């Protein structure tokens, strides 16, 4: 686990005045560095809890940073903005560089928030789905048909000898994906912990098929550009370190983290039980499994790129070492 950062204490240096009087030199308060951090979806979503905890608990501030979050339209847009030099850092999925680098967008994953998959398949307990092959002919909601959670669904289907033509895919957006499932208009959803915990809180009985058991997709990642990694490594290191402290808080004590989080993100005030359940699902299916917190698994990344190439999701492969760096987590 990451050791908590001890803040440096700067002491005023006494100087001799008029031969006998001692005065303390005034301490100049360091000016925090402004940083815009791009997110692929609104920051109030529980999936971004590590970032919100890092902000609300002062971890970015302790690194001398004034972080402001800005939401754009998905992880690919984050990558485009970072690649163009419009921002230093942002959030996506560990496989985002696989998708964008063949298009000339020079970004890497500089940390991955978990050794598991962001996505899992949530099915209605009464839908008669006991194995993946039972999904044939069933309606499955997903965020979109160009999202990495949907690609993870395709990987899971492939492990059971199914393709996208064997199911009824329903792209529904971040609200419709769980609302249609909750209303019984789909039998399954390509889900994340937020949505699964939400329908459970409403009394929906579900079964969960972990993606990792069938297909090694990725967790969320912190992204930066080749240029920024080369020219501003210490800034990236500070951002990564502070964010991973937020992740560590959740993994170490999800109950306490849920209480802190609901105090920071006022939209979720009073929802400690729901948030704690969400955190526990993230720990079980997404956050766990890393020997070094934040480190990329190169073999997993290579296998995922191979699948994307075979499925025609990307037109060419990228050397795997160009897709990530672990220099900021080791």
What is this structure, in a nutshell?
The chain has helices spanning 49-56, 59-62, 75-83, 96-100, 148-159, 173-182, 193-201, 226-231, 233-252, 254-264, 272-287, 298-310, and strands at residues 14-17, 21-24, 33-39, 65-71, 89-93, 107-112, 120-124, 139-142, 168-171, 188-191, 206-210, 220-225.
Description:
With 330 residues, the chain is an alpha/beta fold. The chain has two domains: 33-116 and 218-322, D-Maltodextrin-Binding Protein, domain 2 (3-Layer(aba) Sandwich); 120-213, D-Maltodextrin-Binding Protein, domain 2, CATH 3.40.190.10. The protein has twelve helices and twelve strands. It has helices spanning 49-56, 59-62, 75-83, 96-100, 148-159, 173-182, 193-201, 226-231, 233-252, 254-264, 272-287, 298-310; strands at 14-17, 21-24, 33-39, 65-71, 89-93, 107-112, 120-124, 139-142, 168-171, 188-191, 206-210, 220-225. A five-stranded mixed sheet has the order 4-3-5-12-6. Helix 1 packs across helix 10 (254-264), helix 6 packs parallel to helix 7 and helix 7 (193-201) packs antiparallel against helix 11. Residues 1-27 have low confidence and may be disordered.
